[in-house]
Write a structure and sequence with these properties.
Number of helices: 5
Strand content: under 5%
Helix content: 55-70%
Radius of gyration: 18 Å
Order of helices and strands: HHHHH
Length: 102
């Protein structure tokens, strides 16, 4: 359906070895999020878990160095050296709370 509409080029992604089905995505969520963040004896605050997932995403996407360079540029511009990581809300509920509080 999506392939015929030109939205997803299934043959190209298959030739690149990129998983297409929802099963691969669900499996990745289970391995990355559930097993690592919900392991035995592991306790996370919501903010810390979101920050860790965002950091992991930056590393996997090879954008970590760019992010560090951007943060250094901004801290040099405004003179601040004491900064705290503030992850963007990742859940719809968090985004709704953010939008309604402004």
């Amino acid at each position: 359906k999506h392939g015929k509409a030109g939205r997803l080029k299934y043959p190209y992604f298959r030739s690149q070895g990129i998983p297409i089905g929802s099963g691969a995505i669900e499996s990745s969520i289970r391995r990355v999020i559930n097993l690592r963040l919900k392991g035995n004896g592991v306790f996370w605050k919501l903010e810390a878990a979101e920050a860790m997932l965002q950091i992991r995403s930056l590393v996997i996407a090879n954008r970590w160095d760019d992010r560090i360079q951007t943060m250094r540029k901004h801290s040099a511009y405004d003179g601040s050296t004491n900064w705290r990581w503030s992850p963007r809300p990742m859940s719809c509920k968090a985004e709704d709370n953010l939008q309604t509080s402004t």
